[in-house]
Specification:
Blueprint (H helix, E strand, L loop, with lengths): L1 E7 L3 E7 L5 E8 L2 H8 L6 E6 L4 H10 L3 E5 L1 H7 L7 H13 L11 H33 L14 H9 L6 H31 L2 H7 L6 H11 L8 H7 L4 E6 L2 E7 L4 H15 L3 H14 L1 H22 L3 E2 L6 E2 L9
Parallel strand pairs: 1-4, 4-5
Antiparallel strand pairs: 1-2, 2-3, 6-7, 8-9
Helix pairs in contact: 5-7, 5-9, 8-9, 9-11, 10-13, 11-13, 12-13
């Protein structure tokens, strides 16, 4: 068995190959072009296993290695760093450490997302990026109107609805500023059309996704949010508790403890897409779910609107874990509509 540690970079990879007894068989820096990779990885006659850290671009290399019948293990970057920190850090050292940990079966693994799911997630994430750009353009328009003391909120509940856009197009702000506003409006219309195209592409995916269909019935969870949650969470069984899932999404505050003192800091880094769609869903959800509304109002009174939204999103995600694990659903006894919590259920 060969044990291959690969320190992946944008244009090249540092590769260390260990033999069955731990001896170094090869240490080489190779270009990430396919013809170069072929010359190197076509030479392995023995069974081989490779390890790559789960950086943003790991997918293409994992797919390539698997096509060469090389087993791939995906390593969690932060956990590898905690296990094998070194005062000397070079690409050669990193690839050697990875190979040695792989041989010792000590790799802290990350979730190996299969290629078909990565493809769907890429579409969903691209749509999320477009929505983010759309929000930025809207904020630019609001800012421009405020500079001219135009109080659009007194005239329209939705400045970017049909009547609101007619109003925006009728404005004459100044010789140079009016063309700026027109470009913002045109950019907004373009982004809206691109988002619609993406939504059409995802309808077939949604129709085949039972988890997304289940989540879409929950209050405040729309078609797109349900798909994001389903694909980003993946198999719910990989999370051993609700807190584990919330930590994965970056919705658990960091904790610093020393002796008798404990201090809670900002929320942890995590899956920003799960965190984003849930926080965005909070306003609609609390308008339909009495239990979550009461929870939100309680936190808001103590800590303010923003922290209440994050806390409510965390509570929603914890309950999503429970609902998916148990395959249960609850309805409001008064309205008959699906809700996150039943009155008898202990809240997470």
């Amino acid at each position: 068995m060969n044990y291959i540690g690969i320190d992946l970079h944008k244009k090249f990879s540092q590769v260390t190959v260990l033999g069955e007894g731990g001896e170094i068989k090869e240490r080489v820096k190779i270009d990430n072009r396919e013809e170069v990779l072929n010359r190197h990885f076509n030479n392995f006659d023995e069974p081989s296993k490779a390890v790559i850290e789960a950086t943003f671009s790991w997918g293409w290399l994992a797919d390539y290695l698997q096509s060469r019948k090389i087993e791939v293990v995906l390593a969690h970057p932060q956990k590898v760093k905690a296990i094998a920190s070194s005062q000397i850090k070079t690409d050669k050292v990193d690839s050697l450490i990875l190979a040695r940990l792989l041989r010792a079966d000590m790799i802290p693994t990350a979730y190996f997302c299969p290629k078909p799911l990565r493809e769907v997630k890429e579409v969903l994430r691209s749509r999320a990026s477009l929505v983010g750009l759309k929000t930025q353009v809207k904020n630019k328009i609001h800012s421009l109107l405020h500079k001219y003391n135009i109080r659009e909120d007194e005239k329209f509940s939705d400045l970017f609805g049909k009547r609101g856009k007619e109003f925006l197009n009728s404005l004459e702000l100044g010789e140079y500023t009016t063309p700026v506003l027109k470009r913002y409006i045109e950019t907004l219309s373009f982004l809206e059309e691109e988002i619609k195209k993406t939504s059409v592409d995802l309808k077939q995916v949604f129709e085949k996704d039972e988890v997304a269909q289940f989540l879409e019935r929950l209050p405040g969870i729309g078609f797109y949010t349900a798909l994001i949650l389903s694909k980003e969470i993946g198999n719910i069984d990989r999370f051993f508790s609700a807190k584990h899932l919330c930590s994965y999404a970056g919705l658990v505050p960091s904790t610093y403890q020393s002796g008798e003192h404990t201090r809670h800091g900002k929320i942890k880094q995590g899956n920003k897409y799960i965190r984003w769609v849930l926080i965005e869903a909070v306003p609609k959800t609390i308008g339909k779910d009495k239990v979550l509304n009461a929870f939100y109002q309680k936190i808001k009174a103590k800590k303010g609107h923003n922290k209440a939204k994050v806390a409510t999103a965390r509570k929603m995600l914890g309950q999503i874990w429970y609902l998916l694990k148990t395959k249960q659903s609850f309805v409001d006894p008064e309205t008959g509509s699906p809700v996150f919590f039943s009155g008898a259920f202990p809240h997470h």
